[in-house]
Amino acid sequence: MNPTVYRLHQKPKTPGEPGLPKTPVKSANIELSGLSGDHNNFRYNKKKNHPDMAIMILSMDVLNDLNDEGWPVRPGDLGENITLENFSYDSIEPKQQYHIGSIIVEITIICDPCSTLQVLPYVQKKRLKEFMSTLIKRRGWYAKVLKTGKIHRGDLVKKLN
């Protein structure tokens, strides 16, 4: 099976609320700064909206593994903007470029677990450290946008290099 976009997620800046979980959308405009209408508190406050962190990508194999390990993680819970299916997360490396629907992205930085994850209903403060340890090297990858456009659920994903 070909890799495809399983889900797209966004969450607008909402005063007093964390940026997780992100909610699903059927399609999204992707700009150089990221997914239109999405706000990432860490990226905005700490990284000054650095273009290398425009969007976050994760694949269903990670979410399925986490579920098998007893963590009921759903697409969008970890802050990803794009959840892929039929795609091996272990194959992702920095500098890889992907054509996703009409956009092109380049993988840049792996996303580290953070304390914001404690807002998820299945992660109480007492289990935060355990959950963060579980997510090391599995929370997703940041990517910069090389070509803007609109993407939809079901769009094909193709590695360019």
Keywords:
32% strand, 161 residues, alpha+beta, 13% helix, eight-stranded mixed beta sheet
Write the layout of secondary structure elements.
Blueprint: E1 4-10, E2 23-25, E3 27-31, E4 34-35, H1 41-45, E5 55-59, H2 60-68, E6 82-85, E7 97-100, E8 103-110, H3 128-134, E9 141-147, E10 149-152, E11 157-159
Parallel strand pairs: 5-6
Antiparallel strand pairs: 1-2, 1-6, 3-4, 3-10, 5-9, 7-8, 7-11, 8-9
Main beta-sheet annotation: 8 strands, mixed
Structural class assignment: alpha+beta
Q: Largest sheet, order of strands side by side?
A: 2-1-6-5-9-8-7-11
How far is the first residue's CA from the last residue's CA? 20 Å
Structure, explained:
With 161 residues, this protein is an alpha+beta fold. Helices cover 13% and strands 32% of the residues. The chain contains 3 helices and 11 strands, in the order ββββαβαβββαβββ. The protein has helices at 41-45, 60-68, 128-134, and strands at 4-10, 23-25, 27-31, 34-35, 55-59, 82-85, 97-100, 103-110, 141-147, 149-152, 157-159. The strands form 2 sheets. An 8-stranded mixed β-sheet has the order 2-1-6-5-9-8-7-11. Strands 4-3-10 form a 3-stranded antiparallel β-sheet, with no helix packed on it. Strand 3 (27-31) and strand 4 (34-35) form a beta hairpin. The longest helix has 9 residues, at 60-68. The mean pLDDT is 92.
Quick overview of this protein structure:
This protein has 161 residues and is an alpha+beta fold.
